[in-house]
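Per your request, structure below.
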């Protein structure tokens, strides 16, 4: 079996090299490509960098979970291959189109699956960013060590002239930079880093950071976004961007779709949609929501766990969601071939008695959101987590249109 897997990976590596270096003329050598890897924050970091580069007048490309963009024009993500990082043939096709349309920079998410499957083999990266590493995708990688090893491959790929930028506050941040050839840089809030940040102000209006004693303001919310902003600022500095202009762009930049996307209802309820679908990301988003909560306000969380995916994170997410919310509504989230009720029972299996009292079970996600809206009062915060930018619900092999933001807005109109 090991030989079969090895041969399959060698074949994938061969396909990647053939696609990039021969058929498309190795387009990555004609671009400055920045890869972003980590469990959480990849989409936000890559998207912000793309928006900044575009605002500064550069032609740029974006390859992300949410969208692929070439010089301002969105390219549909293939329905049959909706990976965070595309297969090597389609990836090099995108890069070639970016070259043809005059792009100078490309900002792309680099997933652990892509690294393990050699999808980015042969790509010439100008820089790499590591955000964090937490419990996720263990249904595929089996162990956290394998997961880390997949991420580490990316930094071993970087050439000596490239930069490697790592979050030193993360448990794996320093190890990610060990024994690599690229130029090493760190960012964080807790230690002495190359790019040291301090949170000066954090509220519903946004974030005010001090980065190496430079004040930087953003409309983005939450401490987890402070890390994303610090990574973005650091990368812009390493790319030689005009930091005075970068600072101005950051003041008005919006988050990517489905990443802490929010609105306030007419009756004063803050509604948030976020892609958080791992224990760490759910915990961080709920802690960020707690920072925004008014004195007498409540947090109403609505979330589930995906089917045919890592079952071990379900009780962890259930416990985190219930303990950090005033009311937690457990519901479905792409159950796929599994039974939603059984998934929810697994989510409830590790709850303390006091947290179990706060949990409501509503399998139908539409009804769950509607119930959350009916319960919400002025000053409350509703968090719909897990789906973010996704506009579908997959049940028993059938994908039906479903958008958390649309459902929230519709439910408030009905209230």
């Amino acid at each position: 079996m090991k030989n079969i897997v090895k041969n399959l990976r060698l074949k994938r590596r061969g396909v990647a090299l053939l696609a990039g270096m021969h058929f498309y003329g190795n387009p990555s050598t004609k671009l400055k490509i920045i890869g972003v890897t980590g469990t959480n924050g990849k989409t936000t970091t890559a998207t912000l960098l793309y928006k900044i580069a575009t605002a500064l007048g550069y032609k740029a490309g974006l390859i992300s979970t949410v969208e692929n963009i070439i010089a301002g024009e969105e390219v549909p993500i293939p329905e049959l291959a909706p990976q965070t990082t595309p297969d090597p043939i389609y990836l090099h096709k995108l890069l070639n189109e970016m070259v043809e349309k005059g792009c100078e920079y490309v900002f792309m998410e680099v997933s652990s699956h892509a690294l393990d499957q050699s999808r980015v083999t042969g790509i010439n990266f100008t820089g790499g960013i590591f955000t964090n590493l937490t419990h996720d995708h263990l249904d595929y990688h089996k162990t956290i060590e394998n997961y880390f090893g997949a991420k580490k491959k990316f930094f071993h790929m970087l050439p000596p002239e490239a930069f490697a930028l790592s979050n030193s506050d993360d448990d794996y941040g320093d190890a990610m930079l060990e024994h690599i050839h690229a130029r090493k840089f760190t960012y964080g809030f807790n230690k002495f880093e190359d790019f040291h940040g301090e949170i000066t102000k954090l509220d519903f209006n946004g974030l005010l950071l001090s980065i190496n004693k430079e004040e930087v303001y953003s409309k983005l919310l939450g401490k987890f976004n402070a890390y994303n902003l610090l990574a973005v600022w650091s990368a812009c500095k390493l790319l030689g961007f005009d930091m005075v202009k970068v600072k101005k762009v950051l003041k008005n930049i919006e988050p990517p779709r489905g990443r802490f996307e929010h609105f306030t209802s007419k009756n004063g309820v803050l509604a948030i949609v976020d892609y958080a679908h791992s224990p760490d990301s759910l915990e961080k988003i709920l802690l960020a929501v707690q920072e925004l909560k008014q004195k007498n306000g409540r947090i109403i969380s609505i979330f589930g766990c995906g089917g045919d995916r890592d079952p071990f994170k379900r009780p962890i997410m259930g416990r985190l969601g219930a303990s950090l919310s005033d009311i937690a509504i457990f519901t479905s989230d792409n159950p796929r071939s599994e039974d939603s009720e059984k998934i929810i029972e697994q989510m409830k299996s590790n709850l303390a008695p006091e947290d179990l009292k706060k949990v409501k079970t509503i399998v139908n996600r539409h009804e769950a959101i509607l119930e959350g809206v009916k319960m919400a009062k002025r000053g409350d915060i509703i968090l719909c987590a897990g789906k973010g930018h996704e506009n579908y619900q997959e049940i028993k092999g059938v994908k039906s249109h479903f958008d958390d933001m649309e459902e929230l807005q519709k439910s408030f109109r009905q209230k």
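The longest strand covers residues 195-203.

Regards,
D.
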